[in-house]
Amino acid sequence: MKTFNNILLAITMVLTALPALAEQPVIDVYKSPYCGCCKHWVSHLEENGFTVIEHATDNMGEIKARFGIISELASCHTAVINGKFIEGHVPASDIKKLISEKSDIQGLSAPGMPAGDNVPGMETTQGNAKYDVLAISKDGIEVYSHYE
């Protein structure tokens, strides 16, 4: 009887967890297998409720070309969620906002490698960085979020 109760408890726990797992947004992250800041950014996403599928590659140029990411917008990693690209150290809050709105934005980018306490995956002890997250659409590029 004890074994049956343990099995019943395990089944109940799994069934209870399934809806929560289904609600987590899934994001594919393409990154170098050797990049430490990329690993920290992935942890930031997971801590903010994303299910991350990591793709280690030595050819990030090919990934960026696939999504039309020009060098001025490039950073060290590229992610894809709901058909939109996320380039660089974009905060999870901006990604959640993007996927919740209906827009023609093709992707977001935090170009380069901004470093500061407010840059997920690039935290330092030097204080906050001043940087922009850019929205890219067929109409052009505009500031999506500004951080100080």
How can the largest sheet be summarized?
Answer: 7 strands, mixed
Low-confidence stretches: 17-22
Radius of gyration (Å): 18 Å
Tally of DSSP helical segments: 4
CATH architecture: 3-Layer(aba) Sandwich
CATH superfamily: Glutaredoxin
Report the portion of residues in β strands. 25-35%
Using brief descriptors, characterize the structure shown.
alpha/beta, 7-stranded mixed sheet, 4 helices, globular
Any overview of this molecule?
The longest helix is centred in the N-terminal third of the chain and has 22 residues, at 2-23. Helices cover 34% and strands 28% of the residues. A hairpin with a 2-residue loop joins strand 3 and strand 4 (84-88). It has one domain (25-147): Glutaredoxin (3-Layer(aba) Sandwich), CATH 3.40.30.10. It has helices spanning 2-23, 36-47, 60-66, 92-100, and strands at residues 26-31, 51-56, 78-81, 84-88, 105-110, 131-137, 140-147. It contains four helices and seven strands. It is α/β, with parallel strands linked by helices.
